[in-house]
Amino acid sequence: MKRSDVLTWDEYFMGLAHLSAKRSKDPNTQVGAAIVNDQHKVVSIGYNGFPNGCHDDDFPWEREGDFCATKYPYVVHAELNAILNSSTNLQGCSIYVSLFPCNECAKAIIQSGIRRVVYESDKYADTDGTIASKRMLKAAGVELVQIPYTIDLQVSKKENK
Ligand SMILES: [Zn+2]
Q: Which keywords accompany this UniProt record (predicted)?
């Protein structure tokens, strides 16, 4: 008998986004993204972090204070990193992300040709950024799919014998 309790494709790719988020050094918000083509092949992956050459020891992760002393001007969101990390055309792909994309990432998603956004949390739905994001994504005909649960990924290490 084959196993019947396997992860669905959506669970599998969202789990991958969560695994990627575990690379983020942001002390407050870890977001991961996975981009998948219509053949169920992973074509890219990313998490929120600073640009290449901008080291975590030199740039701030603060959320409050003078703008240039916070993370906001420097951090690259998971979705944008996944788009920029791709070495292939993203036309027709789906992006899996734990949190609904912001308006800046929405622009990159649309321009990259991604046609479907699968997300878990929409906790910033009432913010101007998310309202603008949805307005653009809907106008561009990008499908928005919220999965009704959150994948909880636990990674543990055991010493090899
Ligand atoms: Zn974003």
A: Hydrolase, Metal-binding, Nucleotide biosynthesis, Zinc
Residue 133 CA to ligand 1 centre (angstroms)? 9
Largest CA distance in the chain: 61
Residue range 4-26, pLDDT digits in tens: 889 999 999 999 999 999 999 99
**Protein residues within 5 Å, CB atom, of ion ligand 1:** 77, 102, 105
Q: How far is the CA of 69 from the centre of ligand 1 (A)?
A: 19
What's the CA dihedral at 114, 117, 123, 128 to 10 degrees? 40
For ligand 1, the distance from its centroid to the CA atom of residue 5, given in whole angstroms, is 33
Residues placed in the known binding site for Zn(2+): 77, 102, 105
Domain spans of the chain, in order of start: 7-48+77-144
Q: Per-residue pLDDT tens for 18-61?
A: 999 999 999 999 999 999 999 999 999 999 999 999 998 899 99
- Write down the architecture of domain 7-48+77-144 according to CATH: 3-Layer(aba) Sandwich (3.40)
Query: Residues near 40 by Cβ (< 8 Å), separated by ≥ 6?
Result: 9
